[in-house]
Amino acid sequence: MALTEDHQDMRSNAELIGRDDVNDFEEIFHLVGAIEEDGMHVVEDNCAAMFTWDYEKGARPKLDKLYEKAKKSQWNGSTDLAWDTNVDQEKIAHQAYLDGATGPLANPDLDLSGTPMATWGETEWVEINMQYQNWMLSQFMHGEQGALLCTAKIVETVPWIDAKYYAATQVMDEARHVEVFSRYLDTKLSGHYQMNGHLGLLLDDIVADSRWDMTYLGMQIMVEGLALAAFGFMAQTTPEPLLQQLLRYVMADEARHVAFGVLSLQEIYSDMTHAEIRERQEFAFEAAIRMRDRMQGQEVWDRMGVSPAAAAKIAEQDVTRVDFQSLLFGKIVPNCRKLGLLDAGDGWLREKFTEMGIIQFEHFEDTEAEVQAQAEGSPAERDAAGIL
Question: Which among 95, 260, 307, 335 is placed 20 to 30 Å from 149, CA to CA?
């Protein structure tokens, strides 16, 4: 991912994402995540730890304000969520089927001829609804572990004490998020999934890059930004009250996390060269493609015995789902605009986001404004007061 200072030329899609056509669905579906035999995944992380001897708290007032808000906003995943709630996943999945939900597909009226799904009945469609929920919550859990690693890395590498202070609160947040998603999967649903292959490639890139601002861009802006939108959609659509509560609490944390990235990167991007900014633009595009591709649910289709070619045939028709996935970038695009990445240089990232069909979100509310509008206190306290 690292380029030379003299890098000025536009890199091709093949160089950035491994294929020329961003919508080559068969290539997208061929990448299925796998778990290593020893149950561990190792990524080389050769970053430099940075001490600072400037301990002045509040030298960066906006970061300091975010830190103070974070200290008041902690909640306990073991005691603040209603874990005694009974969750009947099969009943919920069956009702979703009756309402027209078909797992990874947004449109139940697609032409399924020539695919295994053409012969599916109620049993298979209810099963894929359950599998898709297991898969989606598993990806949330894996992404939160990625955020846990990256935020610990930010504490280590960022040069400002106010950023170290805030990042330390986020480490606690991310540990709590991993805990609650894992517990929900273990005690309320019917199984885990491995990390999606496209998400894994992105997290490997973020963790392996030695530059602290790339950690911010990849995790705080891109991954956390899409997660915030995805949590919001699921919270609005699930009928299950415990999951609604869990997602609302996690979202209250995530909005701060994305704002932390915006506040920190605004300061350094103004001093970067054209070549350095182009690297960040390219990485933002690569991250956007990886996150869009991972939403296709490759591992679910694989477990249900559907080949990549058959899944690709369906995905190419499912324009409704493409539109839905585009909406998940409603948090990312305005934050990239606020950071100046959309139009820096020759507007390369604007062109790429236009190609992806997500540029229309550039004037959505950015996350910093969303955080400023939040009431003080933990989500549990706000929930009890009826203001979350």
Answer: 335
Whole-structure pTM value: 0.92
Q: How many CA atoms lie within 13 A of 247 on its CB side?
A: 21
- The per-residue pLDDT for range 253-273, each reduced to its tens digit, is 999 999 999 999 998 998 899
In DSSP terms, 102 is beta-bridged to 105
CA nearest to 287, candidates 343, 328, 249: 328
Specify the higher pLDDT residue, 4 or 124.
Answer: 124
Q: How many CB atoms within 10 Å of residue 10?
A: 14
| Structural domain 89-384, CATH architecture | Up-down Bundle (1.20)
Could you tell me the residue ranges of all domains in the chain? 89-384
Please name every residue paired with 105 in a beta bridge, in sequence order, or none if there are none: 102
Average pLDDT over the chain, rounded to an integer: 91
The 3-class SS string of the chain reads CCCCCCCCCCCCHHHHHCCCCCCCHHHHHHCCCCCCCCCCCCCCCCCCCCCCCCCCCCCCHHHHHHHHHHHHCCCCCCCCCCCCCCCCHHHHHHHHHHCCCECCECCCCCCCCCCHHHHCCHHHHHHHHHHHHHHHHHHHHHHHHHHHHHHHHHHHHCCCHHHHHHHHHHHHHHHHHHHHHHHHHHHHCCCCCCCCHHHHHHHHHHHHCCCHHHHHHHHHHHHHHHHHHHHHHHHHHCCCHHHHHHHHHHHHHHHHHHHHHHHHHHHHHCCCCHHHHHHHHHHHHHHHHHHHHHCCCHHHHHHCCCCHHHHHHHHHHCHHHHHHHHHHHHCHHHHHHHCCCCCCCCCHHHHHHHHHCCHHHCCCCCHHHHHHCCCCCCHHHHHHCCCC
Section 155-176 average pLDDT:
98
How many angstroms separate the CA atoms of 342 and 347, rounded? 6
